[in-house]
Structure formats: C-alpha cells, structure tokens
Records
---
Amino acid sequence: MTMNKFGLHMMVHTPDWTEAGARRVFESAKKIGYDFVEVLIFDPHTMDAAMTARLSEEYGIGVATGLCGKLSADLSSTDPVIAKRGEDWVTHAIKVTRDMGATMLGGPSFSALHRYMLPPSELARERAVDAYRRLAKQAEAAGVRIGLEALNRYESNFITTVGQAADLCRKVGSKALFVHGDMFHMNIEEGDIPGAIENVKDCLGYVHVAESHRGYLGTGNTDWKAFFGALARIGYDGPITFESFSPSVLGPEMAGLIALWRDLWSDPDDVAAKALAFMRQHVRDAATAVA
C-alpha cells in the first residue's frame, strides 16, 4: 500500500484565507478524505498562522504551505536590495509555516509569478545559492523544509524544469531543500517526464497534480500512467497535492494572472472528490505494476 499523503490546494475552494474560506477548505478536505490542505501564503507578514493551526487541529487535517516571490522581493533579481527583500520574504514565510504547524514550504519562492523578458543572470543564480544556504539553516532550526517549484517559462525564468530545481538543491547541499514538481508546468517544459522524475529522485519531496488545462484529472492530454509509474519506480512516498483552478472561484484578477480564460468546472467538492479517487487509483495501479 502507498505511504503517500494526499493534499487539497486551498484555491480549489477559495482565493482568500479568511476563517470562513479556510473552514470551507478544511471541511471539504475532511469530508472527501484528504490528509492535508495546502495554504498559499500571499503575504507572510499578514497571514493568520494561529487561525490556521487552530482549524488544522479542529478538523484533524494537516497543513503544507506555498509561497511565490514578488517583483519587489525577488530572490532572482540582479538588484541586491530586491534580492535581499526576497530572502527576507522567505524567512518570514518559514516562521509562518512553523506557526501553522506545517513542516513543508513549497512554491516558487525564488521569483515572482511573472512573464520575465530576459534570461536570469549567472550572478543572480550564484546569489540564490548563497541565499538558500542561509534559508536552509533557518528552515532546519524551525523544523521546516523548503521546496523549489519549477514553473513554466511564462511564469518564471529562473527555475523552469525539475532538473534546474535539483541543481540548486544539490549546490546548496542541505536536506532542508527539495524539488517541488508540478505536472501542469512539467507538461509544458519537460521533454521526457518519466526521465525527468527519475533524474531528481534524490531531491524530489513534493508533487502537485494538475491536468494540462487545469480541469478535471483525466480530461486533458497528460499521460498520468507514465507520471505515476515514474513515481512508483523511484519509490516516491512523499505528499501529492491536487491543484486545480476555476475563474468562478478565483475571480477575474487572479484568473487573469495565470491566464485562466475557460471555466472547466464549477463544483469544488466534485472536482476535488474525483481527483482524490483518480490519484489513489493511479498510485495503486503504479505500485502493482512495479511490484
């Protein structure tokens, strides 16, 4: 039997982490059978960690967190002032993650969610290694691990493949850092998804499952058998989170940020329930195939 725990991304239900929105996510996760929820930290300075920890305990559902950088606090910037703000941004997110009772902070903390017009500089890459060495020490002290989520080329220029994420993890050389793989982005950027997964088996620590068009799992062009088969072959037993977005949930501004122009579902509970059944079945089938 699989040891994977399954998570539900908060934005399947809500873009706002108020207590009312948070309760909807925790209630849905508990009702459907998810093990934890992923909370996106929009601003680590204003996030209500105590409320999240309280609801997590109330519902008996765990928490993982995610973080994006921003243009004014961007670890990938060549401007040392902006890069330092980016490092401070992650430092605060580590503390918020700890205070929520979570142990994993994923997402693209290395850059903003932005269409960059130039490739990253080598200077920025060197600075990022130094910054993540310092952040890894802070994370270790807090009992937290930091994941580097590879994004597609339209949303970042700094880490767009899981191999690039693994390269940074290996250069930092700390177990507090891991690769965060996301199938939506991998489907765009990786030429050989099973091969890419196998090449980062020493670093892979967290996985987002999302369909190629962000809709119901199994209704896009993703080769899920190949994906879950690769996870099984490397013995991946880490967490797997379902992530799907709908403009009717996110609202026009946030949907526009990720270029989500079609509404492929309107019932959060239905898409989440079918996703959990889909993921569990594929994990079981893949485990049987490699046994």
---
Amino acid sequence: MLEKPHFTEYVMARLITISVILFALFSVVLVMMIEERKILFLVLSLISFAFLLFIVAIYRGARQMQKELDTINTYLANLDTLESVEYRARFFSKEFEELNKNLIKALKKAKKREEIKQRYNAKLKLKNRQRADMISAIAHEFRNPVASIMGYSQTLKEDPDIPPALQKKFLDKIYNNGNKIEALLGRLILWNKFESGETTLHKGDFDIYALAQDVRRSLLEKYKQRNIIVSGSTCMVYADRTLIEIVLKNLMENALKYSKEDVEVHIGTDCSITVQDKGVGISASDMEKVTKKFYRSGTHTWDNSMGLGLSIVKAILKLHESSLEIRSKLHEGSAFSFRLPAKMTDK
C-alpha cells in the first residue's frame, strides 16, 4: 500500500498539475492569437514567471501550515509524557488560527484529565494496599483469640470430667477472648465511621479530671496488678465526652501494655492531658508511623490493636481541633499529650 503524501506534497502536486494544464491552454490560445514570435515569447515568459511566483507563494504557505500541524500532531502523539503545553502558533488564516487555539485548549484539558486519572489511580492503589493491610491486620489480631476460644471449647467438649475450678478458668478465658474480639470489632466500626465522615460531635461541659478517674477505675478492673496515678486538678472542658473517653482509654491502656511500672496521668490547669509511662519507648524511625492506621512495628511488640488505636486517637483529637504530641525515648518510656478547649463561659 502506497504511503500517503504530506500536506505540502499533496498541495504542490495538485498545484503544479493545474498550473501546467493552465499554462498549456494559455500557450495554445496565445499561439493562435499572436503571430509575432518575440511578443509571443515575452508573453509566455511573463505568464511562466507569474505561475512560478504563485507556486512559490503557495509552497511557502503550505510549508508553514504543515509545520504548525506537525507541531500539534507531536503534542497529540506525546500527550501521556507531555509536561506542559506552551506552544503558540502563528497562522496567517483566522480559521487555522482558531483551529490551532481550540486544539491547544483540547490538549490542555486532555492533559488535565490525564493528571486527574493518574491521581485517581494512585488513590485507588493506596486504598487497595490499605485494604490488604487491613485484612492482614484483622487476620493477625483475630487469630489468637479465635484459636484460644476453639482450643478451650474443644478441651471442655472432649473432657467432661474436668474439675469445676478448671472449667471456670477455661470459661473465663473464652469469655475474655470473646470480649477482645468484640473490642476489635468496635474499633473497626468506629474507624469506619471516621473514614466515611459519619461521626458527629455531641459536645458538652464535663470535668476531664473526673473522666480520667473513671477510665482509671475501669482499666484497673482488667489490669488488677497494675496502677494508674492520676494527678492534677479539676478542669472543665467543652468536648464530646464519649469520644474523649475513648482517647483516654486508648492512651492509658497502651501505657499499661508497654510498661511494667506505674502509669502517670496528669491534668494541667490549662486542660492539657499527659499520659506517661516508663516502658519500651518508641524508636525515632517509628515515631512518625505509630499514629498511622494498620501500622505495625517490627522492632518490638508494639501492638496498637490492629494499628488503629493511636490512629483513632489522632482522628478524634482532630475533630476537636487538637492534636497528639508524642515524646519518647527507646527503652526509657513515652509521654502522650493533648489539650482540650475549656468549658464555654455562660453568657
């Protein structure tokens, strides 16, 4: 199959063909009308020169048009890798100039759509990776309690002669592991609400010191051999009590998990709250990562309940226009601090 000609080649081929035919017709007519050879030669020469000028002018215009069209075609061919569109065409025809402008606009819009598509694909890949991380985290966290429940249940089923005291111990283990699964599911449901933007604040005035004491008593029922020291003074804050209770519980329980000594909670006069432990601490490389969802450090047993605990704390504080400050040294302990707005003054 023959290759199609370029724009200039096509125009020149047609133009030269037409010019030759017209020149031949003019020559025949002039030969019949002019008998004087010198005059005939002069007229034919002038006509030939006029045709030549016309052809050159059309050739230059066609070359300019082809150059501009080639430039636009290059943009279209390299749209995926094009960084910017800054080309300015100079057409001598208004129609071609408008065509060029509209094509440049179309190229810019197409480039913008491509950038949007790339950002969307990047977000989609991130979501898929997070979903895979979530499934992995759920499988990891649920494996142990489910295995314990199945193991103790199978033992009770296969051995009906187990002493009552041991049966009670096994049933307590099953119950505690069931509570752990329920707590994990609760964290997932809560985080899903944060992710979907369904969480709404129900703010009110309450004493953060009294709430810290309530959380302390609740946790010591579970960690009977441990102690949490709450110091400071009464401080009335304006916040969502239920969500702030989740924040305090997460921070205090993390401190209990990763420290064998007493956990200290201090309530400042400016309504700042600090939870401090003397446990394993957090390495500098993990400091920026511990508040990310589904993050799990490989350097020590930093559990963080599917990596959602501190991430949920961070999200709740953000809703209250606050933030979590972490100070930690590896093998020396950590301090987690935040501040809440004080109680609204009565008008």
---
Amino acid sequence: MKNGFTRSEMETALRNAIIKFEQEFMGRGPTEVRVFILRDIILIRLKGILTPAERHLAKNGEGIGMIKQMRQNLISQGREQLCRQILEITGVETTGLFTDIDTHLEERMIVFSLNQDLEARFR
C-alpha cells in the first residue's frame, strides 16, 4: 500500500485509518482529524471526540480523570492494531505511541514515533 503515495495521499490514508479505528474501537468517530508527517513523527489531532456521557463526566476533576484513564486504556488495548496500520500504510515501524486528551477542548493528540525519517521520502 505504501508504494507511490504522495505526502497528501499518505496523510489521507493515515487519517482514514484513525477514523476507522475510532469508530470501531472507541465507538464513535471524531468530528475532525488532521494528520501531519514531521520527520520521524506522525502527529494526529482529533477534535470533537467526547461522547455525550463523557461531556457530562468532564464537568468535574474526578470525571476528567476517569475519561483520561479510560481512553488511555483503550488506546493501550488497540496499540498493536494502530501500529500495524501505520506500518501497512507507511512501510515504517513505530517505535512509540503517545497520547493525551483535553476534555475542555474535546481534543486528543496521538503521536507515533518512527524508526526512520518518513518525511524524507517526500523531499
């Protein structure tokens, strides 16, 4: 799948894979997803990610903590699948996966570190 992709096409393929993961694994998709390839990093910004129940929980600190912990656990369980999708699309191994959520902004960032400079392919 990786052969012949332009940067834009690869970012779109990564975007579509993340949306599909969110819908299937998390139960709903975000309202907006942006993907950026930056050297040996893939940065993904997801907006509009909270469910109505999570919005209600996010009204206090304890609820925010619960949301963050639940989302962290779900990403951990889906890590292998996500890293496999990155490899299939890019042909590059993932060395790390980092994520955090801001419940006030209803955004999540996902960062994949890679074992080589993916951006160099498009120079």
---
Amino acid sequence: MEARQVFRELREGKIRPFYVGFGTESYLMNEFADRLMEQLTEPEHRDMAIVRFDTAESPLDMILDEAETLPFLVPRKIVLVRDSVLFASGKESSRIEHRPERLAAYLAQPMDTTVLVFFVPHEKLDERKKLVKSAKSADSTVNFAPLPAEELVNWVARRAEKQGRRMEPSAIEELLRRAGTDMHVLASETDKLCLHAGAEGTVTAEAVSALVTMAAEQNVFRLTEELAALRIEQVLALYYDLLKQREEPIKLMALLVRQFRNMLFVKELGEQGYSPQQMAGQLGLHPYAVKVTADQARKFTVDRLARLLSELAELDFAMKTGQVEKTLGLELFLLRTASAGAGK
C-alpha cells in the first residue's frame, strides 16, 4: 500500500500487527513511527512501550523474543526494526545469524499486544525472498516513496494550515525552488515562515525570498533557468553570490553537469513516453525535481545539451590540469552559454 493509505488507516484507528515500510523518504517513515507512538502510548510510558533494533547489530531471535514478550504496564508495545538484509538485498553480516523461517512463522500468527515494524531504507524490496511475499500477501508492506510534485505542494500548504497560517501558491513554489525537496528541510523552513507570519498570517513569496537561504544545488537550478532565458546579468549575479558563499567552481561545474545531463535524459525519456513518476524512478530524482528539470529542458535542444556537456568535460580537464584558472574558466563558460542561447 502507499503511504497515504497507511496514514488514513491510522487516522481511522486501524492498526495492523506488523508493517514492512520501505522507500527513500525517511521523513514519512519517521512520521509514521511518531503517529504510531501517539496512537498507542502515552508520553510518560514510551520508554517501556517502544523498543528499537537493527538487523545489522541484533539477531532476529532477539527481536522476535522481544516481540513475543508481553508488554509491561502498557496494553501494547511497538518494536521498531531497521533492516537491510531480511527484506532487501543488503549484505548480511557474518557476525549476526538470522533465522528467517522464525519470522515467517511469527508473521503468520503475530502477537496482538505488539506492533512489529520493519523499516527498509531501500527503493524496493527483494521480491525473490519468501518474507517479502508473505508480507505482501498480508497487505502489510508500505511504500514510503517521495511525494509527487502536486502532493508535495499540498503537503506544505497543509502543514501551514495546521499552524493557523496560509501560504500563497507562489510562496510554496519559491520555497521549493530555494529549499529543494527534502521534507525535513521543508518542514523546518515552513515552521520558521509560519512563526514569522504570526497568528492567522499569510506567508508570501517575498517573505520566503528574505528568510530562506538557497542551497548551492538549488542555485544551480536557477543558473540553468537564467542561461536558458539569456539573462546574462542574472547568471553572473548568481555565480558571484555562490563564490561569495565560498562554493568551489569545480563543485559548481559538477552540479551543472548533473543538471544538464538530467535535462538530456528527461528529454529522451519523454520522447519514449515515460511519465514524470517513471522518470523519477529511472533517474533517482524527486518527482518535483523532474518537473522542474522537464520545464528547463524544453528550452534546450538535444544537440545543444550534448554540446554543453562536451564543453563542460573539456573545461573540467583544463581546470584540473591547470590550463585555465577555475573561477575565470567557469565564468567564461557561463558567458558563452548565455550569449549563444539555449537552442543553438
């Protein structure tokens, strides 16, 4: 099931005896664990009600012994297990012995007084394993994947609404442009903006611009936008700001290479009929990053992107061999690119 379904079940009071959560969105995993704790335990009893393990450090027998032990002074307890070997294809430690057959027997008859949760920080489960098949047949696997672009925007808006504030659509877009798609960062920045807006206040794009610092990677997104729009002054202003922040030209060039390469891949995958969500899986990008990259890629031809990547490869060699001064070399590349245009 998807993350939204399991959160809906929690709101409705439905709690399963075991879960196998997988995916790359750690914020949603942590939020799920927090919601479970809120539903099942009082704050003063959580030390007795919550037990944590890692299959890289603890044998499965120890984990299941705990799961099968009745809780003390609380009606139900939660056993949280971080795992990369039982349900994924991670390498098993020679020091730790696991008996998967015992877990399979437990999943067939789980304890009513325990909620056993495995968190697997991998994009996919290992479908070849019997444990994965057992968990799927019980409909207990949860995919904590990055939110699609539209859902991420709605999530930020809802977070502000829960605090009695409103975020203008343009403010949310500016926040995503500046902070990126990491939900931990977005949550922190949204809370800061809501605090600044005051009770029943509105968060504006101007407030976001003033209060949220743009990370180097997000500045490179803007650089490519300005390059495509042929706005040379803005390109240079962004570049000089990054230098003032002591960003290395070689690091900035590597980020440019990655962005131009992603734009090229997005164009090619789009021509093959891939959806944004499928592109995100293929490229290892957040769906919102795919949306932004696709918008930028429309302003460049495939040939132009290929030439830019070739030029950057030559510049990388020249910079690293001392043939050109790093700061000046990247500045001249930006000037040439902005002057020549995107599609030429």
